[in-house]
Amino acid sequence: MAGKLFVRERRKVEKGEKKPRFRIVGVSGSNLKIYVTHIRKKEVDQLAKSAGAEVVYIKAEKKAKSK
Known about the structure:
Elements: E1 4-9, E2 22-28, H1 41-51, E3 54-58
Parallel strand pairs: 1-3
Antiparallel strand pairs: 1-2
């Protein structure tokens, strides 16, 4: 059975920032341990390929700014 990696974009990332943009929220059906809090998309793809897992990108809601 292939596992799944649940990933979402970080909330406090500015466009053009040189920091990792994604955060792994959860792992299902795989014996995989992840020791980082933030990760780049290329790294997520490499982990998924190596572990035989599928990547599921979670859409975060955009909150409207109140005046």
